[in-house]
Design brief:
The chain is α+β, with helices and mostly antiparallel strands and about 150 residues long. The chain has one domain (about 5-150): Chitinase A, domain 3 (Roll), CATH 3.10.50. It contains 2 helices and 7 strands, in the order αβββββαββ. The chain has helices spanning about 5-40, 100-105; strands spanning about 45, 50-55, 70-80, 85, 90-95, 115-120, 140-150. Strands 1, 2, 3, 4, 5, 6 and 7 form a 7-stranded antiparallel beta sheet that branches. A hairpin with a 4-residue loop joins strand 3 and strand 4 (about 85). The longest helix has about 35 residues, at about 5-40.
Length: about 150
């Protein structure tokens, strides 16, 4: 019992720091995204989660949901325009339940044939962990075409 209070205080402090850091990162990501939108003269729509999307063509085919399996052609890039990944032109098939949060949320804004852009804050991309070629806390841009809803 004598260790309970000190341990509880340490857990509280660590939790508070993590929350503060996440809030600070969200503010920084928003600033980066707003500058990107301004610099590129985009008509981007915010979703409330930090995600922004741009619809160049809505598409006329089937709609999808966050639980759909889809085929998407895409190019992923950093804010500075450097590409880190590109799908084959015929796209890649995947379940929207098995991808980063920004895709699960963002792809359903398009219908089959839809083309546009997803602008993801780091929390909806690879977060504080990053990935092999993506540093932690990185805002990502995806140019996408929703080819098929399966």
């Amino acid at each position: 019992m004598k260790y309970f209070l000190p341990v509880l205080l340490v857990v509280f402090a660590l939790t508070s720091c993590a929350k503060k850091n996440a809030e600070e990162q969200a503010i920084l990501d928003e600033e980066i995204i707003q500058q990107y939108i301004t610099d590129n003269n985009l008509n981007a729509v915010p979703t409330g989660s930090g995600l922004y999307y741009v619809i160049d063509s809505q598409g006329t085919g089937d709609a999808c949901t966050s639980a759909s399996t889809v085929t998407v052609a895409y190019t992923g890039s950093f804010i500075d325009g450097v590409e880190f990944e590109q799908s084959p032109s015929q796209g890649v098939e995947f379940s929207l339940q098995q991808v980063i949060k920004g895709w699960t949320e963002g792809i359903p804004y398009f219908k089959e044939g839809g083309v546009g852009k997803l602008i993801l804050p780091s929390a909806l991309a690879y977060g504080t962990s990053g990935s092999a070629s993506i540093a932690p806390n990185t805002v990502l841009i995806f140019d996408i075409e929703l080819i098929d809803v399966l």
